Amino acid sequence: MIIAIDGPSGAGKSTLGKMLAKKLNLLYLDTGAMYRAVALAVTRAGVPFRDIDRIADIAENSEIDLVGEPDAMKVMLDGEDVSVDIRTLDAAQSASVVSTISEVRRIMVEHQRIIGNSAPNGCVLEGRDIGSVVFPHADIKFFLTAKPEARARRRHTEDQAKGRISTYEQTLAEINERDERDVSREDSPLTISDDAVVIDTSELDLYEVFEQMLAKVGEKRASAA
Description:
The protein has helices spanning 13-24, 31-45, 52-61, 89-98, 102-118, 130-134, 148-161, 168-184, 206-224; strands at residues 2-6, 27-30, 64-67, 74-77, 80-81, 123-127, 140-145, 197-200. By secondary structure, it is α/β, with parallel strands linked by helices.
């Protein structure tokens, strides 16, 4: 079974994707982490973000793996655990730029399809173009969304818990900026697939959303039996 979870930054995709994967014994793939790893490799190599050819070359030749359980996933870049390094604000912003490069997306999508199709029990993939581009024929597609203000509050709370210095206003501005890049990029913009189950998480707690998603998966499995 392939489960696609798409949506804007801060809508709860990662947390809920991990919960679903663990509950259903499926592989979990955070595609955003893969773009962050490429961005980190580009930064470390000192390559300007305008040098599209060199960035694509780095994406092609970098070995990116995600290993471990869904709730303790390690992101490996050329054999090095970069799980912490890719979770900085700079890494997020750089990944947003790198992900607009068509050749990088092609390379990443190919890699994501190989991982998803080779998972023994199936895979939960989360990102921004899973249901529309990576796995358009996924068994079930979710699109998680929330008002920018709600997403900013969540992200700001997470940042504070991790000791990151930021204000709510800064976080909201960053989310709005990221949203604009995601929906306006020419290659694989953030869109809602016609057959996606859309859930607005603005006023729902995590477990309410999880139960809704789990119920939809159960319905899908029952109809396919």
